[in-house]
Design a protein that fits this description.
The chain is of the alpha/beta class and 343 residues long. The protein contains 7 helices and 9 strands. Helix 5 (232-248) packs across helix 7 (289-316). Mean pLDDT is 83; it is low at 81-122.
Length: 343
């Protein structure tokens, strides 16, 4: 008989248990085998895709809600605006009816009524401005009537004075000190007018004219003339006045011009002798029927426009601030003028 050992039988698995990545194997001989697995994370792409779709739908819903709220608010504002306009229109109509009843049976054409008359009841933009302005109605006196209308019934000097007095009234409503070169039908030389403005310490100077041309009654429109050196201050004054006149309505905007008509190397005397920023306004042609009609219908509006342009210039050039308070201690001088003599 051989003495070799009897081979042991293989252990039999009795039970297996798995917890996460650890496997427990129980054998009949009491041995427990522990096996650790290097597990890999499983990515659930389907769930991720579904979550993304849900998120996108949620964001789209939020955006639609925001748009709906904004549209609702905008609609509400529009309704409020309409209501305000409606109330405002009602008040204006009521006021108009009241004014009409006071005027008796007189009928006013809205298309030709004066805007200045409508603004007369409104408070001026400024009050008590510390500003001096010279308004110079051109021509005057028996020997200097200026241009004359084709029918010979209207003299330029009279319309210049009429307009000048209206501008004076508009400026004084804002507290502007106005120096008038004349308030009656009298003649002053250009040197006398400029000397008056210079010695009074005027900050701005506006010479009022009506234009004319011989042999061509079709020429029309408004233009302003400044010193041929094109000084910045003077151009600002002329452009502001022209801008306001255009808003009222003129037959043609002929622009701001430098020098003297037909002689660009020369200057109108007012644009040399006046030391402050100055301009010469030609408000339509006295020889043109359209310009004459507009002057008669809109002279109050034109006066207010000239006054508004003057005050805007004072603010633009730093003479006054936006509240109307004076910012410079001395008279405003236009040092860029060609040939100006300062005092």
């Amino acid at each position: 008989m051989s003495n070799l050992p009897i081979p042991a039988s293989e252990p039999v698995v009795v039970y297996e248990q798995r917890e996460g990545r650890i496997k427990y194997t129980y054998y009949d001989n009491g041995i427990v085998k522990i096996t650790r697995y290097k597990g890999t994370r499983k990515i659930y792409w389907g769930r991720i895709f579904a979550a993304m779709i849900v998120f996108m739908l949620l964001m789209m819903g939020i955006m639609q809600s925001v748009k709906a709220i904004a549209a609702s608010l905008k609609k509400g504002d529009a309704k409020n605006t309409e209501a305000t306009v409606s109330v405002s229109d009602t008040l204006m109509q009521s006021s108009s009816k009241s004014g009409s009843s006071k005027a008796g049976s007189a009928v006013t054409n809205d298309d030709t009524s004066s805007q200045a008359d409508k603004n007369a009841d409104n408070e001026p933009l400024y009050a008590n401005l510390s500003l001096k302005v010279c308004i110079a109605p051109a021509h005057g006196g028996a020997s200097d009537r200026g241009a004359v209308s084709p029918d010979g019934e209207t003299a330029e000097c009279d319309q210049n004075l009429e307009l000048g007095m209206l501008v004076k009234e508009c400026l004084e409503k804002s507290g502007v000190t106005v120096i008038m070169t004349r308030e009656t039908d009298e003649k002053l030389s250009i040197s006398e007018r400029c000397s008056l403005a210079n010695q009074a310490g005027a900050d701005l100077y506006v010479s009022l004219h009506r234009n004319s041309v011989s042999g061509d009654e079709t020429l029309c429109g408004t233009e302003l003339w400044i010193n041929n050196n094109d000084p910045k201050y003077d151009r600002t004054l002329a452009e502001n006045i022209l801008e306001k006149l255009v808003e009222v309505g003129i037959s043609e905007n002929r622009g701001v011009k430098t020098g003297y008509s037909g002689l660009p190397e020369q200057n109108y005397q007012v644009n040399i002798d006046a030391v402050m920023p100055s301009c010469l306004l030609e408000l339509g042609f006295l020889t043109n029927s359209v310009d004459n009609m507009q002057f008669e219908e809109k002279k109050n509006e034109y006066a207010q426009a000239i006054a508004d342009g003057i005050i805007k210039t004072a603010a633009d050039l730093g003479v006054i601030d936006q509240s109307g308070k004076r910012l410079i201690p001395d008279q405003l001088i236009s040092y860029e003028k060609n040939g100006v003599q300062t005092y």
